[in-house]
């Protein structure tokens, strides 16, 4: 039975107070849920938020839904929009079911003991409950550290804490007394294209996607909500701003400006806002604020940030707190409607297929391939493996001496990484299948982690994040776009650019896009430099490796995580000096 269930009700819990209950030998410990319901059969807890107002949280509804066949369960879960973890505590059979959301905006972590399993949506909060934050040291999880240093994201169940794991995103998991966690089903992956769909004109696609985005934003924003759009100066955010104007929302465009750093898209962002007549706030990111906010990002996420922009976003969100209810963000649009990375992958895949057809007619070609001094590009094309290439798209580029030294010391298990990604289990034997796998892997790693970071930072400032491009109807429609409608002739994302012509002059929509650069190189040499030097001692790492910015960004985050959470030093390279030389 659930002990002391009254702690869930009304305002009796504090926002950051642990909520505890026991089913059989399993203990649930979590920070206060945003919604709670209980009857004689079960209790339902929602952490985070679900936009759909018609979704009921009655225990009977969820108990029935969880007993449905996988396709029916997945179809229902795909309709949920928001950032949530949902726990169903079944009093009848003493089991706990956990539904994690499609975008991983909220995560659920667990810690197993002889008493049972503790669950929490806060990684550092759970570490404190496990006494790691009260002076009892713990170790880094070596597989997690290796994955972070190579990718800056964690695909599977590991966390930087050796004894704490996480449930996968977009999953339904079940816990029962005396057994381990069992994943019942994964959902939320990018859908496959339906057979026999005839490609329409660009204008038809643009009109339909426009209507789907309108519907999603209309359903996600309530009357009276104060809405901010993160306006980068690119295609995706400008479209969202235009749709908000169509819907007559109380909207303001927000753009960060980094001190002493030229942003090539800032003038474009100003022009977008001016053409719509929307208020445009440019928020300064001062270098003096960077170190403190970087440390706060690490503490909030429980990992080093995947994206350099996370620090800028936290500074921005803290200035927006109290002024806005919702923030719109264009994450996911590239993967769905036109990615340069996918385009380059497609070209390499086609060349690989053509080469294989030619080499089939050459006797003993596998043996010749090994012994002949083939040009690097030709050898690389012949060795092309779609799944490995898809994972490599998300891998950060480390300098070769550092990468070799790191891999000599610790092994990166790519098979575990593959297993942790939420992708369809299909044989990558055709061009269409290969592209689907790549999109799913990018979505399941880069998009999910970026969304998690911004959602976590927004939630900490009492702002809800809306990402209209990754609702299920939009995702399903994008899956059926032809290569022409996806890659375009000269510019990728032709469908979205066509939508943009509704709101802006065409010349503005087809300007070259440079992204929204963050001056992390300056930060690593300036406000983060001291922590970088301390991190090299903590990890027994040659200080010259800090010249690799991708490595430095991550190793500083890991060092701060260790410093705040009593994690023991990890000798990555076994150089002289090591932790004995650590100041203090």
Query: How much helical structure, as a percent, in the residues?
Result: 40-55%
Number of domains: 4
Number of helices: 24
Distance between the termini: 49 Å
Shape: globular
Give the SSE layout.
Elements: E1 18-23, E2 26-31, E3 35-38, E4 42-50, H1 59-66, H2 70-77, E5 82-90, E6 95-100, E7 109-112, E8 117-120, H3 123-129, H4 142-151, E9 164-166, E10 171-175, E11 182-186, H5 202-220, E12 226-230, H6 235-246, E13 250-258, H7 266-276, E14 280-285, H8 290-301, H9 309-320, E15 326-328, H10 333-337, H11 340-359, H12 365-371, H13 376-382, H14 386-392, H15 400-409, H16 414-420, H17 431-460, E16 464-466, H18 472-478, H19 483-487, H20 494-500, H21 506-509, H22 520-525, H23 529-538, H24 549-565
Parallel strand pairs: 12-13, 12-15, 13-14, 15-16
Antiparallel strand pairs: 1-2, 3-4, 4-5, 5-6, 6-10, 7-8, 7-9, 10-11
Helix pairs in contact: 4-24, 5-6, 5-20, 6-7, 6-20, 8-9, 8-24, 9-17, 11-17, 14-17, 23-24
Domain Asparagine synthetase: 210-534
Protein name: asparagine synthase (glutamine-hydrolyzing)
Enzyme class: ligase
What do these coordinates show?
Pathway: Amino-acid biosynthesis; L-asparagine biosynthesis; L-asparagine from L-aspartate (L-Gln route): step 1/1. Pfam families: Asn_synthase. The protein is of the alpha/beta class and 584 residues long. It folds into 4 domains: 5-141 and 159-186, Glutamine Phosphoribosylpyrophosphate, subunit 1, domain 1 (4-Layer Sandwich); 202-336 and 451-509, Rossmann fold (3-Layer(aba) Sandwich); 342-440, no CATH class; 528-581, no CATH class. The protein has 24 helices and 16 strands. It has helices at 59-66, 70-77, 123-129, 142-151, 202-220, 235-246, 266-276, 290-301, 309-320, 333-337, 340-359, 365-371, 376-382, 386-392, 400-409, 414-420, 431-460, 472-478, 483-487, 494-500, 506-509, 520-525, 529-538, 549-565, and strands at 18-23, 26-31, 35-38, 42-50, 82-90, 95-100, 109-112, 117-120, 164-166, 171-175, 182-186, 226-230, 250-258, 280-285, 326-328, 464-466. The strands form 4 sheets. Strands 3-4-5-6-10-11 form a 6-stranded antiparallel beta sheet, with helices on one face. It has a 5-stranded parallel beta sheet with strand order 14-13-12-15-16. Strand 10 and strand 11 form a beta hairpin. The chain is globular and about 70 Å long. The protein starts with 17 loop residues before the first strand and ends in a 19-residue tail after the last helix. The model is unreliable at 1-18 and 576-584 (pLDDT under 50).
């Amino acid at each position: 039975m659930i002990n002391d269930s009254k702690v869930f009700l009304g305002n009796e819990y504090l926002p950051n107070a642990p909520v505890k209950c026991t089913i059989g030998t399993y203990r649930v410990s979590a920070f206060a849920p945003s919604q709670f319901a209980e009857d004689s059969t079960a209790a339902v807890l929602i952490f985070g938020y679900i936009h759909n107002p018609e979704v009921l949280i009655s225990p009977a509804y969820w108990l029935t839904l969880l007993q449905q066949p996988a396709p029916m369960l997945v179809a229902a879960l795909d309709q949920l929009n928001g950032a949530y973890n949902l726990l169903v505590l079944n009093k009848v059979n003493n089991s706990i079911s956990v539904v994690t959301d499609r975008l991983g905006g909220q995560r659920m972590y667990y810690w197993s003991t002889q008493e049972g399993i503790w669950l929490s949506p806060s990684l550092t909060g759970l570490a404190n409950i496990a006494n790691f934050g009260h002076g009892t040291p713990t170790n880094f999880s070596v597989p997690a550290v290796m994955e972070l240093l190579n990718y800056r994201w964690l695909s599977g169940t590991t966390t930087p804490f050796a004894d704490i794991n996480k449930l996968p995103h977009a999953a339904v998991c079940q816990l029962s007394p005396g057994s381990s966690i069992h994943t019942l089903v994964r959902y939320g992956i990018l859908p496959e294209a339906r057979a026999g769909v005839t490609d329409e004109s660009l204008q038809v696609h643009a009109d339909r996607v426009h209507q789907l985005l309108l519907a999603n934003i209309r359903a996600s924003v309530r009357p009276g909500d104060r809405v901010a759009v993160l306006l980068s100066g690119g295609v995706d955010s400008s479209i969202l701003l235009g749709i908000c104007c169509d819907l007559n929302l109380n909207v303001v465009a927000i753009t960060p400006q980094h001190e002493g750093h030229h942003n090539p898209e800032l003038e474009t962002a100003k022009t977008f806002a001016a053409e719509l007549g929307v208020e445009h706030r440019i928020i300064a990111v001062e270098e003096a604020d960077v170190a403190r906010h970087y440390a706060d990002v690490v503490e909030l996420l429980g990992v080093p940030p995947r994206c350099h922009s996370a620090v800028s976003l936290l500074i921005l969100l803290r200035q927006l707190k109290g002024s806005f209810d919702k923030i719109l963000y264009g994450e996911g649009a590239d993967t769905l409607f036109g990615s340069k990375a996918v385009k380059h992958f497609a070209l390499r895949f086609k060349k690989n297929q053509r080469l294989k057809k030619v080499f089939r007619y050459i006797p003993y070609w596998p043996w010749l391939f090994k012994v002949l001094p083939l040009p690097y590009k030709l050898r690389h094309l012949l060795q092309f493996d779609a799944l490995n290439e898809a994972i490599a798209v998300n891998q950060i580029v480390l300098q070769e001496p550092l990468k070799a030294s790191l891999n000599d010391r610790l092994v990166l298990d790519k098979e575990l990484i593959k297993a942790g990604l939420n992708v369809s289990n299909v044989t990558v034997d055709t061009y269409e299948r290969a592209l689907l796998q790549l999109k799913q892997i990018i979505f399941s790693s880069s998009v999910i982690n970026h969304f998690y970071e911004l959602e976590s930072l927004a939630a900490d400032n009492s702002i809800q994040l809306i990402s209209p491009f990754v609702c299920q109807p939009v995702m399903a429609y994008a899956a059926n776009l032809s290569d022409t409608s996806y890659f375009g002739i000269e510019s990728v994302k032709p469908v979205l650019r066509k939508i943009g012509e509704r709101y802006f002059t065409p010349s503005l929509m087809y300007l070259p896009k440079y992204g929204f650069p963050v001056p992390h190189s300056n930060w690593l040499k300036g406000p983060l430099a001291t922590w970088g030097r301390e991190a090299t001692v903590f990890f027994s790492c040659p200080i010259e490796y800090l010249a690799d910015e991708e490595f430095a960004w991550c190793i500083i985050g890991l060092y701060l995580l260790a410093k705040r959470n009593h994690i023991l030093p990890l000798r990555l390279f076994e150089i002289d000096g090591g932790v004995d030389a650590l100041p203090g």
